[in-house]
Amino acid sequence: MHFKLLGSNDYELDPVGVIFQNRGVKDYNRLINLDEKAEIHFSKLKNIDKAVNLLLKHIEANSIIYIQPDSDCDGYCSFAMLLLYLNKVFPNIQIKWKLHDGKQHGINLKDITDDIRLVIIPDAGTNQYKEHAALSNKGIDVIVLDHHECEKESKHAIVVNSQLSPDYSNKNISGAGIVYKFCQALDEKLGLSLSQNYLDLVAIGNIGDIMDLREIETRYLVKKGLDNIKNPLIKAIIEKQDYSMNSIINIHNVAFFVVPLINAAVRAATEDEKIQMVKSFLESDEKVYYKRKNEFVDIHTDTARMLGNIRNRQNKLKSSNTEVIKSDDELVKNVLEDKVLVIDVTEKLDKKLTGLVANELSKAYRRPVLLYRRSKGLLKGSARGYENGEVKDFREFLLTSKLFNFCEGHGNAFGFEIKEENLLKLKDYFEINLKDEIDIDSIEVDFIINFSEITRETVESISALRDEWGSTLFEPKIAITRIPVQRGEVYLKGKKNNTLKFVHNDIEFIKFYFNQTKFEELFDEGETYYVDVLGKCRTNEWEGRKTPQIEIEQIEVVDRLYF
User: Fold this and answer.
1) Which residues, 6+ apart, have CB-to-CB distance to 294 below 8 Å?
2) Could you tell me the CA-to-CA distances from 140 to 1, 119, 120, 380, 490 in Å, in that order?
3) What are the tens digits of pLDDT across the range 127-143?
4) Does residue 383 contact residue 414 with C-beta atoms inside 8 Å?
5) What are phi and psi of 253, to 5 degrees?
């Protein structure tokens, strides 16, 4: 293993400070000691009063209102929050909605029937200028509650968007955050205090949209939401995932064990499965038939189980499709020397899996990836950046080329469209603006520590901040080098005898899912082994005793002594 430091290697004086500096945070005390002062008043959002007044006007007129769910975790949380709030306050309100067939964004005009008088688009729609104009010409009002970047403000819709609000400094809040602010504004107008009941959906939406959690307000709302889980579906998913989450509800665990189940359903569920998920989000009290047990069960428990099955189904498809692309010489091997993998997947990959496969290829080949399909002189597809590489914001890097019709989404996960004639120019752009050598072997770490200098205090100080990591505050990894281990001191344990363990300097080193075959390959001969370890800091608590641990991600024997 070859390690590369993210910054200073000062692990003795202030390891926590160095870790936060490596993530672009100078005053970490402010970031981890948040209070209500972190929150920005909703009135700073441009047009929010206009949007509230327009909605109330239509409710008073008993208008039929259409609300469009957007096709991702943040979109579903935004939609659920808005409906839950409106149905609670206005039980007789007339609302229509329709799920997208695939992973589209914004509204389809064909879904807007003539009896609808107001359309609300949460977490999308800012750039749908033509659709706004078409609806306005039919006498239909439009409210957009969004956070995505845009070129200009629509002339035919009331747009509440953090990006278009000069007085609202937080540009790193998701659609769920904007809907929450809208509900806060409704609270003030109506003399209520209901919006805070939906902070859990705000948290899940922002984590799901991978918002920058170095942003003070966003972090405050996420933390507050995770401390107050109320939505029955989110509760059921957390209960289902309790073992994997080790009974800990924090940003990292929600990102890895809750959000992926929701996103899997958005991409891979049937229409009936998606509708069941929405009903559960909306706190239905239904019982649903569970065929395996031949009984009716609580919809939330059943939905959580169902989402786990969908996630497994999606993972199998993702893996098989990724292998198809990786094994296709024509597609991949001809571009493996390129700085960015630009691959034509026309008629070779299920459209719903494009982003997922792009993500897998980016991790596998440690560089950015563009997967595209050809359509009438255009190349359309999904892009994934490689955050440990040279380019930290791949979307911005591509937009700077001025070759794309659009790149819409997040910094390292987004959809794009480019004219086919610009493809060669794009490859030239990569050659000119990226380094010649691609460093795919280095592993970025916060510290490289010789075995003799690793201490309990260092491990414990880093481990104590386990609930802070997630999104742009990625979890620290450290390298510990040339640890001497005697053959009799390293062993396998656990019910399945598949957990590697040894102790050094009163610190446990542990690696899960390490079978006998791997063990014998690594410790095949010799009496003393010198190993390099890549790992994360943990604290194991058992019967009141705390033991510092290094949870090993990778281990390598670098030397052996024979006697």
Assistant:
1) none
2) 61, 7, 11, 31, 70
3) 999 999 999 999 999 99
4) yes
5) -65, -40
Q: What is the pLDDT of residues 421-438, one digit of tens each?
A: 999 999 999 989 987 655
**The pLDDT of residue 439:** 60
Residue pair 79/134 in contact by the 8 Å Cβ criterion: no
3-state secondary structure 110-171: HHCCCCEEEEEEECCCCCCHHHHHHHHHCCCEEEEEECCCCCCCCCCCEEEEHHHCCCCCCC
The dihedral through the CA atoms of 225, 226, 228, 233 has a sign that is positive
Residues 478, 6 contacting (CB under 8 angstroms): no
The answer to whether 160 touches 124, Cβ cutoff 8 Å, is no
- Per-residue burial over 258-278, b if 16 or more Cβ lie within 10 Å, else e, is bbbbbbbbbbbbeeebbebbb
418 to each of 64, 374, 402, 422, how far by Cα in Å? 39, 10, 10, 7
Closest CA to 408 of 178, 46, 163: 163
269, 254, 246, 194: which is closest to 222 by C-alpha? 254
Query: Rounded to an integer, what is the distance from CA 545 to the centroid of its chain?
Result: 34
Q: Which residue has the tokens 């975790």?
A: 73
Which of 219, 220, 145, 212 has its CA nearest to residue 180?
145
| 477-493 tens-digit pLDDT | 999 999 998 888 898 98
pLDDT digits (tens, 9 = 90+) for 134-168: 999 999 999 999 999 888 899 999 999 999 999 99
Beta pairing partners, 441: none
> Which tokens go with 124?
């999308």
Sheet with 507-511, strands from edge to edge, namely 447-450, 478-486, 528-542, 545-561, 507-511, 499-504, 491-493
The string of DSSP codes covering 394-457 is: HHHHHHHTT-EEEEEEETTEEEEEEEGGGHHHHHHHHHHHS-SS---SEEEESEEEEGGG--HH
For helices 175-190 and 216-226, angle between their N-to-C axes, nearest 10 degrees = 80
